[in-house]
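Much of what follows relies on a compact textual record of a protein's fold. Each token is a code from a learned vocabulary of local backbone shapes. The record below shows the convention in full.
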Amino acid sequence: NSFCTLLAFQSAQRVWMDSVKSAAGAAANVAAGAAGLAAGAMSPVKDRLVEELGHARSKLSEQAAAIEELRAEKLQLLRELEARKKQEITERLANRLAGVFEFAMGKALLKVKAAAKDPFMPRFVKRSVDTLIESVWPDVKAEVREAALAEIAPKQPLAHGDPPCCTTPRIYLKYTLFPYDRSIWRKMRHPVWWVFNVVSVIPRYGIPQIMYVMLFMILDKGDEFQLLQFISQFKSLQFVSLGVLSALVGSVQYYICTTRIPQTCDSFAPQEQMFTLFLFVVQEVVVWLAFALSFRAKKKGGKYYQMTKQARQQLKHEALDADNVAVQKKKVHKIIFGDAVQSLTFEHNAAVERESKKRMLYFLLYDFATFTLCALLTVWAFSRNMLADDESAGIDDADGLFAHYNWRFTATLYWIKAFYGLLAFPFLVLIIPGVSAVVSHARPT
């Protein structure tokens, strides 16, 4: 019985194990089928989730771009608002400075008129004095404003720049003769300055003409101040050397040759050579060329207190980096004040500019008229010499075209040149410091 029972138990156990295995296989098959069904069912869901995630990312990118655009727009609005506020403050400060200046200059005009007139003057003389003062007062105001603002404006360092190649002799000569930072007493300590100025007044052999033609060649032809300085110095020197000194030397020569026995005026009288006469014409062409260039030249001087972009950026960085609020305000106020001064200093005054150009044109026309007069006198002297019947006016073709000129004709040329030099006296006003600035409004470089 026990054996039968054991066999029955083992067979039952085997049947149970087989049923368990078959059930496990069926369950595995069911699970695999369910997993396959679940995977098939989840695939569209996964694709949908990926698609939704892509849409979400694109929306986030669009929103981020919109936020960045809005930020840039708001930042631009803030910058424009800051610029408008600074412009308003600058204009308000500039208007206030201009108002104070106009009030002070109005008071000064009344005092100048009162000081220039005498109580016992006739009325028409008083009116003439008032008219004269009022005609030049806009130019005086422009110069006084420039000088006043130059004193209160924040100074900027000079940007000398790098010189071009092979200009050392030119730079040396220009700085020796026309230094921007040396007084007349310091210039007089330099021997080259003395050599140039002494040699250039010798009224012989065309030396002044040669010296100043060379000087014109080294000038900056686009700088108004350098051209006008060249014109004023050359024409004033012409009055001294070609006019006054030539008249003195010629008078002494005439005295010597007429008092000698026998008279030697045919040999020792003042005479003009054809070479120096040619240089005389060349110098006039150079001066007229300088006049023509000055009308198109630029004002390159007077900007040493103009606030540069680098200085402005430096002040902004210093204001941002400063920990103290007072220091930040001080830097910002310095920028605003510099802008206000710059707007007042460099505003374009068309009327004053036109008037200064017109004055220089008058000087040019005057010089051309005097030159034409002397040229007509030369033609008259030449025709008179050619039509003379005496032997001293005869032509000797063997000695050249100009050999027939007698000493009277060459002496006449000498005195015509001296007369032209004396006619240059109006140009002396251009070397007077205050008057030259009012006449030309050229800013020193």
